[in-house]
Amino acid sequence: MNQKAILYLALLAFGIAVPFMFPAYKLQISIMWILVVLSLTWDVQGGQMGYNTFGNIMFFGLGMYICSSFQIGIFFPLAEWTASGGEKTFIHTPTQFFQGFFIGIIFAGIIPALVAAIIGYGILGLRGHYFAICTLGLAIAAGELAGGIELVGAGQGMTSPPWPKNIGDTELRSEFFYYICFVLMISTFLFLRWAYTTRFGLVLNAIRDNEDKAEAMGINTMRYKISGWVVSAFFVGIAGGLMGNMIGYIEPVETAFAGRTFGVFMVVMAILGGKGTLWGPVIGAIAFHIFKEGFWTFFLGWQYVALGALIVIVVIFFPEGIMGWLREKYPDRFGEVIDEEDRKAQVELK
User: Fold this and answer.
1) 9-25 residue pLDDT tens
2) Fewest beta carbons less than 10 Å away: which of 34, 169, 183, 210?
3) Residue 347 pLDDT class (50, 70, 90 cuts)
4) What is the H or E stretch that residue 250 is in?
5) Can you tell me the distance from the alpha carbon of 271 to that of 324, in angstroms, rounded to the nearest whole number?
């Protein structure tokens, strides 16, 4: 067994053991796994493909609403739930709760992916800051639209189905959502790790380096750009569905389509760790979450000022991120290694 396999197994064992090692921090660590997913998926466009986007928060909010809506709508009238404080009027049985949850999670991934495919045909022809501004506008518009739909609570928001009282206490609930978040993070990481070793990953990098040359070589760049956004939307939508259940309340602007928090966080995390790398977004998300929780503990009232200062420091002094610094400092350990399979794949691309 090589060192990399041992490292992966050690990290997996640590992740499984976390709820027992740090029982008081299960919710915070669950949110950290969600942040890792957001960072990894943003990097598909912003790092691997070179298309900086602020629109992924749209899929996060869609996932929240879609998951909870399916959880409720399969068994109860959704309009009555949102109008009357449904968690008090209608009560899910354990079977209903888990059936609705898993069906909702599935559609929380599928529907945002379909939306990404449709929208992608319209906006992925834009490049540079035009694309970034367009995605920012979409994210803002999504929050405003959700705030006007009475079926999902409009501006007052909606509650997600509460944990059934007759199957355990809050500890069981927190452990359930912790492991679901952990599985999502592992699945996202492994899928992207595999995808980046295929032609898909090479084409994304070719688009980032010079999209015109990639098209001149006969590569259908639009197809790959849309595919990348669909992959991101799928995992981000599931992450949103999980977050909505963990929080218990979905508000359109501050919670679901929270561009000024989660929308910015996913960009900063990828840059902090080192965009365009596999491990960079993971390291960046973990480091950022630790900083964020520390700011909320020691600088309460000034936490956003501290976060703003952190963003400025990262952009100015660490443009290549933690992984970039490690590669420059320790190239033998952290530099990219091109094996025979990678070399053959690059030859096939050319």
Assistant:
1) 888 898 999 988 988 88
2) 169
3) very low
4) strand 249-250
5) 10
158 membership: H or E segment, kind and range: strand 158-159
Q: Say how far residue 37 (Cα) sits from the centre of its chain.
A: 4
pLDDT digits (tens, 9 = 90+) for 302-322: 877 888 888 888 778 777 888
To which H or E segment does residue 304 belong? helix 303-317
User: What are φ and ψ of residue 158, in 5° steps?
Assistant: -150, 155
Going from the C-alpha of 28 to that of each of 67, 97, 174, 222, 247, the distances in angstroms are: 21, 23, 10, 38, 11
pLDDT digits (tens, 9 = 90+) for 167-186: 777 788 999 999 999 999 99
170 touches 163 (CB < 8 A): yes
- In DSSP terms, 159 is beta-bridged to 249
Exposed, middle or buried: residue 193 (CB in 10 Å: 0-12, 13-18, 19+)? middle
Contact 236, 230 (CB under 8 A): no
Helix (H, G, I), strand (E, B) or coil at 70: helix
Q: Which two tokens stand for residue 208?
A: 């980032």
Amino acid at 219: I
Distance CA 135, CA 240 (A): 18
What is the C-alpha to C-alpha distance for residues 193 and 343, in angstroms, rounded to an integer? 17
What is the largest distance, in Å, between two alpha-carbon atoms of the chain? 63
Interacting residues of 94 by C-beta distance below 8 A, sequence separation 6+: 164, 166, 167
